[in-house]
UniProtKB/TrEMBL annotation:
Residues 1124-1146 have a biased composition (Basic and acidic residues). Keywords: Membrane, Signal, Transmembrane, Transmembrane helix. It comes from Enterococcus cecorum. One of its GO terms (molecular function) is nucleotide binding. Residues 37-298 form the Calcineurin-like phosphoesterase domain. One of its GO terms (biological process) is nucleotide catabolic process. This is 5'-nucleotidase C-terminal domain-containing protein. Gene3D superfamilies: 3.60.21.10, 5'-Nucleotidase, C-terminal domain (3.90.780.10), Endonuclease/exonuclease/phosphatase (3.60.10.10). Pfam families: 5_nucleotid_C, Exo_endo_phos, Metallophos. The chain crosses the membrane at residues 1166-1187. Residues 1121-1155 are annotated as: Disordered.
């Protein structure tokens, strides 16, 4: 121990003595000055941005930030001086100091970055391509610290910023005006810095600035067209020689915004080429170092006698060169040493002065920066990093281009594709809590504000620009709306490594060379930016918002209902082929196992042909696993195959969307499809027997999807069941048709089904939406079929998917209908002078315009009022349009439309009704544009007195694009009545039941609930104001009897008579195979006791050819206000024409005749529902008489 201490003391003493002897010698005999140059490049206004620092040894996360950068620079300088007491330091920037900046710099026109660089003591800098973003004049204004112009972006926050002029010398040698050949704005080609140490020794360092000559490929034309870009090497040679010969400067550093790439101990890329050319021009050049930039990669190597450095980007690293400059020769003694050091929090405290500059900028833009605009289903970020060095596809790139395509469609351009350059995506999309996205985060991703333009391109031009990615493999595109496969160039051309083999639209259709397509690109690409010259010959169709605004708007739109999903990769595919069976391709999932892979499929037979481009095949040697489908669809243009052909196929497996609505990409499931590139017939084969639904396998009847796609369970979940059969042949025996044919589709149950049907042969809506229903796509829109009909024999076809649901594709003319003899009904309610009848009828876009509303429809509706509904005293009309229907002339009056209906009713033998409504504002209440549908009332003035009416919700933002409810005040036999007609917002916008979001969410319900609460509040106030007021609420509520909307409307005041109606007869509408109720009548509780309610089935289950006049059935109620002796003409044993008789039937447990005659054997027994108490009626009569006496007095 003592020996170690002695040794330690001797070492320390020796060190002191050595230093004491050496220091005076250096101070006395020093002939060199130690010099350190610290450089950054491509800072891009990254005042607070952090990210990954990549270096040959790996990656360091969380690097960057101006305050830490300043501290790192100070630390490195201090360490240098500690080792070299007479050392001198300079700080430089190699271009792109500003531009493509995050919000806290960009919104303030990058003036905070100028201020921060002043605080960090940067002395020399050059320009990069991003200094051109808003034009060099604007960049020069920023450098000079001048006030912004009146048209400056975000002027309100920029004009008050305490700006400073830059303290850097700006050098740029190879940029000149086309007009006079001079360097613009009085800038200089080089600068010389004299460094003097403490002993008075002086050395000079010359700095020359150059920028890449590819500027015309990188910048908007208007911002570079007035300038000429001179060859970098030739320019350096010119001014390097001038420095040596005229300035006697031999220590020369070039600030070159030119790409460099590390390659062992040396470098490659544009800087290496530049130095090689310089050495050829002037072998005696004395360029000692180059600080490179532009491509954002770590570089530290030596090319010849020159050190080449690049610090990555955005202040995440610092490039350092150090060396000794000889006072006599004024040159570095040897090639300077170099290192690149990451900027991290380790052993660093943020520089307070720079931190204050950043904090001030943050504060000035906080309101705009921190505004939450949406959310995405991700944790911390959506990355812009590409998946590999060949495909170069990123999740963020897909999200951005998807957004550009969607928003172009919103702007009225029916675009097919969107493309953007990788270089336009400047940062990862950083997320807050629960995936929240702020405006600042979105702006950091797309900061340029490039104009998005819609161009027309041929398929050949699209192939050209896609292949231009691979001519030098420097610049790549992100794409939306298409996918493509590429393969190694068979010619072996070194300048074109890959060529595009096939291109496909997302719907599965190929992109043909002669086809014409609309494509969204930015104006940078339109000018041939990044070398994509193929865009310069395209036809410009128009422009939409800038890319920043478009990205922000897309996030807001897509997040309005739910979090956005991050798009999957797989739009760019390197061709690799394998042999696969159909079951392998389909896999145990809704997405094919080999998606985006190239496959050969053997031993398959054609089972169905859909059209000249699409057919279905099935494996002749199935895998025996019922959870994987043995069939699939194939796309091949002009295929010329037929059923029974045995084929061998080659192509790419894709997940494609079938036909659907505009939002199908966000809502629908996909179809696994082979995009065939080669179809070879090898013979013929027997088509496999179909899977008979209801016999071989049954569709699950309890759940559409009960685990959110977590488990693939075809035995329990209907969606998984259908997926396990996708593309395979299935059959249905003696199918029971549940409702009318529409758009060539039928909804059925197998003949073997034991489900209990209603009296019309339909299936009543349940809260599970009856997943066992089967959709058949017949392709025959003229096929006549209605509820209770059946299909003769067996029908068979492959399973496919479109418009948000699975369906069975049937060959044309394969369906033969057996008539089920379903007849249209008449009400059981008959007129009574002392009883009030009220009906509600959605008459589906009715107007006086004969082109849109036929005379036949008018006659049918009029006759139904007279003959089927027995001329109700009051009728609530839904979807009454203005006089000229869908013609948008700004006029919303509907008196002529009503007159047309009234006259038709009179002609049919009905009463002379009068009509009332409150006309809407033009195009403010939803429905067809220009048609102005509204709620109205017809009333018989001989039966009821009309007092007044008003629109509920007029001027209320909640009722925007929704019909205003109509409140009408009537008097019947002295009793005051409030009748409210309603047509609440539709279910449009709800997710499809069989879609990609499970469980499906019904966003429209929230608004209906809010509307219901407003209407219920109106009722409560009216009744509170007049307790004797009776209330009846009618209409199309666009929701079901068990919904929250109807529960809100019932409240404590009302009873929904639909809920008291026999379940077997409870429906007014037919949708996706379900008989459901959207039309309701609610009445005051005391009226409900004696109310007689009926649902008259004359439309919903029928086609127009069967007499249908609307898509809704009318509903009707008869109300008793006081006891009256029934008229002789009212007695009808079969129909139960009086309330008393009706009640007696119900008390005896009997059904109205229309129910009794059509119920299946397994029908439910209906209990009697009302008992009349004589004492109560007598008391009511006395009260009414007293009331009338007082009124008379």
């Amino acid at each position: 121990m003592k020996m170690k201490k002695l040794t330690k003391h001797l070492l320390v003493a020796g060190a002191v003595l050595s230093f004491g002897c050496f220091a005076p010698k250096i101070l006395a005999e020093q002939t060199t000055v130690p010099v350190q140059v610290l450089g950054v490049n491509d800072f891009h206004g990254a005042l607070s941005t952090t990210g990954s620092y990549y270096y040959p040894g790996g990656k360091i996360s969380g690097a960057g930030g101006a305050a830490l950068l300043s501290s790192k620079l100070n630390q490195m300088q201090a360490n240098f001086v500690a080792n070299h007491p007479t050392g001198q330091t300079l700080r430089v920037s190699a271009g792109d100091m500003v531009g493509a900046s995050p919000a806290n710099s960009g919104l303030l026109q990058d003036e905070p970055t100028i201020k921060a660089f002043n605080a960090m003591n940067f002395t020399v800098g050059t320009i990069g391509n991003h200094e051109f973003d808003e034009g060099l004049a604007e960049f020069n204004r920023i450098l000079l610290g001048q006030a912004p112009s009146a048209d400056s972006n975000f002027l309100d926050i920029v004009k008050s910023y305490p700006r400073e002029a830059s303290k850097m010398d700006l050098v740029i040698a190879n940029l000149v005006n086309k007009s006079d050949g001079k360097i613009p704005f009085g800038w200089h080609p080089y600068t010389v810095k004299t460094l003097t140490d403490a002993n008075g020794n002086s050395v000079k360092v010359g700095f020359i600035g150059v920028v890449t000559t590819e500027i015309p490929d990188l910048v908007l034309r208007k911002n570079w067209q007035d300038y000429q870009f001179l060859d970098e090497a030739e320019t350096i040679a010119k001014y390097e020689k001038e420095l040596r010969e005229n300035q006697k400067v031999n220590a020369i550093v070039v600030l070159a915004h030119v790409p460099s790439v590390q390659s062992g101990e040396t470098t490659t890329g544009a800087v290496a080429d530049m130095l090689a050319k310089l050495a050829t021009i002037d072998p005696n050049h004395t360029v000692d170092a180059v600080f490179a930039g532009h491509n954002h990669v770590y570089t530290n190597g030596v090319n010849g006698k020159t050190r080449v450095m690049q610090s990555t980007s955005q202040g995440k690293g610092v490039a350092e060169i150090t060396g000794e400059i000889d006072v006599a020769t004024q040159d570095f003694v040897k090639v300077p040493d170099g290192q690149v050091v990451p900027v991290t929090k380790e052993n660093l405290t943020p520089d307070e002065k720079v931190a204050a500059i950043v904090a001030d900028a943050d504060n000035r833009i906080a309101d705009e920066q921190n505004k939450v605009i949406g959310a995405v289903d991700a944790d911390t970020m959506v990355t812009r990093e590409v998946n590999d060095n060949v495909q170069r596809e990123s999740p963020l790139g897909n999200l951005i281009t998807d957004g550009q395509r969607v928003m172009a469609k919103e702007a009225g351009y029916d675009v097919d594709f969107a493309m953007t350059n990788n270089g336009g995506i400047r940062a990862d999309l950083l997320l807050g809590k629960d995936g929240m996205i702020t405006w600042g985060a979105a702006q950091a991703v797309q900061p340029f504000g490039n104009i998005l333009q819609v161009v027309e391109m041929t398929g050949a031009q699209i192939k050209e620009v896609l292949e231009q990615q691979y001519d030098d493999e420097k610049y790549f595109l992100q794409i939306s709306g298409l996918s493509y496969t590429f393969t190694e160039n068979p010619t072996g051309d070194a300048n074109q490594k890959y060529v595009v083999e096939s291109m496909t639209k997302e719907d599965g259709n190929p992109i043909t060379p002669e086809g014409k397509y609309k494509v969204v690109i930015n104006d940078f690409l339109f000018g041939g930016g990044d070398g994509f010259k193929g865009f310069t010959n395209t036809k410009l169709l128009g422009a939409i918002d800038p890319d920043t605004e478009t990205f922000v708007n897309y996030i807001q739109k897509s997040s309005a209902k739910d979090k956005m999903a991050v798009p999957a990769l797989g739009r760019k595919l390197l061709y690799q082929e394998r042999v696969a069976k159909v079951g392998e391709i389909q896999g145990h999932d809704h997405l094919g196992a080999f998606t985006h892979q190239n496959v050969t499929v053997k031993d398959v037979v054609v089972t169905a042909v859909e059209n000249s481009s699409r057919f279905y095949v099935q494996d002749l040697h199935p895998d025996g696993d019922i959870t994987t489908s043995d069939g699939m669809s194939v796309y091949f243009k002009n295929h010329n195959v037929k059923v029974g052909d045995q084929l061998e196929l080659k192509g790419t497996v894709a997940e494609v969307f079938g036909s659907g609505y505009a939002e199908k990409e966000q809502t629908d499931l996909t179809i696994t499809q082979l995009q065939a590139t080669q179809v070879t017939k090898v013979g013929t084969a027997q088509v496999p027997a179909p899977v008979v639904l209801g016999v071989d396998r049954k569709v699950p009847s309890q759940h559409i999807e009960n685990d959110g796609f977590v488990n693939f369970d075809p035995a329990d979940d209907a969606l998984d069941f259908w997926e396990s059969l996708e593309g395979m042949l299935v059959a249905v025996n003696h199918a029971k048709i549940l409702g009318p044919q529409k758009n060539g589709e039928l909804f059925v149950l197998p003949g073997e089904s034991t489900d209990i049907l209603n009296h019309s042969g339909g299936l009543l809506l349940d809260e599970d939406f009856n997943p066992q229903i089967i959709a058949l796509s017949t392709g025959d829109r003229k096929l006549r079929a209605k509820a209770k009909d059946t299909i003769e024999g067996q029908v068979a076809g492959p399973v496919t998917y479109s418009y948000g649901m699975y369906k069975v594709y049937l060959p044309k003319n394969s369906v033969k209908i057996k008539d089920g003899k379903l007849a249209r009904e008449k009400t059981t309610i008959k007129a009574s002078k002392d009883k009030l009848t009220i009906a509600s009828y959605n008459i589906e876009n009715f107007s006086a315009n004969k082109e849109s509303t036929s005379d036949e429809k008018v006659q049918r509706i009029a006759q139904s009022f007279v003959n089927d509904l027995n001329a109700p005293d009051i009728i609530t009309l839904l979807e009454m349009q203005d006089n000229n229907g869908p013609i948008d002339d700004g006029n919303t009056d509907a008196t002529q439309s009503a007159k047309r209906l009234i006259e038709a009713i009179e002609k049919a033998g009905g009463p002379s009704y009068q009509y009332i409504d409150v006309a809407p504002e033009n195009n403010q209440d939803g429905g067809a544009p220009g048609a102005n549908i509204r709620v109205g009332f017809l009333y018989n003035p001989k039966r009821v007195d009309y007092n007044t009416s008003e629109a509920i919700g007029k001027g209320d933002e909640l009722f925007k694009d929704t019909r205003k409810s109509l409140a009408g005040y009537f008097t019947f036999n002295g009793q005051k009545l409030l009748l409210i007609g309603n047509h609440l917002n539709s279910k449009r916008g709800d997710q499809p039941l069989y879609g990609s979001h499970q469980p499906a969410s019904f966003a429209s319900a929230m608004k209906r609930d809010q509307l219901a609460q407003t209407i219920a509040t109106y009722v409560d106030k009216a009744v509170k104001s007049d307790p004797s007021l009776k209330v009846v609420m009618t209409g199309d509520f666009n929701d079901f009897e068990f919904s929250n909307t109807l529960a809100i409307l019932e409240g404590k005041q009302l009873v929904n008579l639909v809920k008291t109606h026999p379940a077997e007869d409870r429906y007014s509408y037919f949708y996706l195979g379900n008989s459901e109720t959207l039309d309701h009548i609610l009445v005051s509780k005391d009226l409900a006791k004696n109310a007689v309610f009926d649902m008259i089935h004359i439309n919903a289950m029928f086609m127009q050819e069967d007499g249908r006049a609307s898509d809704h059935d009318p509903v009707m109620v008869q109300l008793t206000f006081k006891k009256q002796k029934p008229d002789a003409g009212e007695k009808d044993k079969d129909k139960g024409d009086s309330t008393d008789n009706q009640d007696k039937k119900n008390n005896n447990g009997k059904l109205p005749k229309k129910l009794k005659k059509d119920l299946p054997a397994a029908g439910t027994k209906i209990m009697g529902s009302l008992v009349l108490i004589g004492v109560v009626l007598i008391g009511a009569a006395i009260i009414i008489r007293v009331y009338n006496t007082k009124k008379a007095k």
